[in-house]
Amino acid sequence: MSATIKDIARETGLSLSTISKYLNNKSIQEQNKLLIEEAIRKLDYRPNRIAQSLRSERTMTVAVLLPDLGNYFWGDLVYSIASSFAELDYIVIECAYNYDSTAEREMLNYLAAKKVDGVILLPVNEEDTMYTSLQEMKIPVVLLDQYPAFIERHPVDVVQSDNENGGKKLAEYLISKGHRRIGIISPAEYSSTISDRIEGFREGCRNTEEIDLRCSAPVRFIVKDEVVMDRAKDFFREMMSVDDPPTAIFCTNYITAMGVFVEAANMGIPIPGGVSVICYDDDPIFRSMASPITCAAQELKRMGETASKILVKRMNGDWSDFPAVRTVGVSFHERESVRNLNADPAK
């Protein structure tokens, strides 16, 4: 016969109300929490999700809404969110709106009709205000990745990567290796993540004389990955076809870096011998290339965990720190895609 909360009460000596608080993610004393968790393991207790939902008026579901489910880059992020909520016995629904604002609106309305308890949303760009429709329906929402342009008018919880500091670190690294002519390849305007990375990169260059920064002309809005890659290839070819091409390229995300590597191979330009490449974002492919890419890597697992914790607080009625804006640090990985011009100043 399945264990019940009465069995947990007998095992721990705690009241049913204390155990109920724990099961509904309410705050209890740490020592009681440890007793309950030990009893749950010992008795192999499995909560009745339907009964829980009826008692709490919750559906025990949360949704993660992404621009594109085909973009495997977000896999670690979604996995960490799903893992965080699985521990609380929530089901996580993954949805995508394919960079289509109409589809995004319809998806949010669908999730509201399904009475999800909360939503973690990756907006299409910084001007995306779809999250306000969830707020109007009293559904807690946390934004990931983009910092909204209208946050003062429409406050919302946000978790983002430390884009500026990551960009600055990459600039300082290139400068330390003797690079002064640097190309920046950027996929999109109206993206707070991209603009912050570029601003951080510029900041890292400000105290160095004779810096020659050359920026690509980004597409107006974020578009599908294959289009971004094609544009990156075009921009790289243009930058490298002049008399004094850059000695290094800063790719503002992993898709542009892939485009650069493909086009460099097409043009017969070796990396890093012909041009150095550095990237904001990491990817497993980067580590196995002939010249593994030096990069600043987002801590996607921590970002997912941080967003999950904020959403749980909101779903439990704790709005004491709203709006919370959390910035998660990046890690730097030095590999083999940058040539040291100080040791070999031929360029």
Report on the architecture of this protein.
The protein has 347 residues and is of the alpha/beta class. It folds into three domains: 5-47, no CATH class; 55-161 and 300-328, Rossmann fold (3-Layer(aba) Sandwich); 163-298, Response regulator (Rossmann fold), CATH 3.40.50. 43% of the residues lie in helices and 16% in strands. The protein has 13 helices and twelve strands. It has helices spanning 5-12, 16-23, 30-43, 49-56, 75-86, 101-113, 131-136, 163-176, 192-205, 225-240, 254-267, 284-288, 300-315, and strands spanning 61-66, 91-96, 118-121, 141-144, 157-161, 181-185, 212-215, 248-251, 276-280, 294-298, 325-328, 330-333. The strands form two sheets. The chain has a six-stranded parallel beta sheet with strand order 2-1-3-4-5-11, with helices on both faces. Strand 9 (276-280), helix 12 and strand 10 form a beta-alpha-beta unit. Helix 5 (75-86) runs parallel beside helix 13 (300-315). The longest helix has 16 residues, at 225-240. The chain starts with a helix and ends in a 14-residue tail after the last strand. The mean pLDDT is 88. One of its GO terms (molecular function) is transcription cis-regulatory region binding. InterPro entries: HTH_LacI, LacI/GalR-like_sensor, Lambda_DNA-bd_dom_sf, Peripla_BP_I. Residues 3-56 form the HTH lacI-type domain. This is LacI family transcriptional regulator. Pfam families: LacI, Peripla_BP_3.
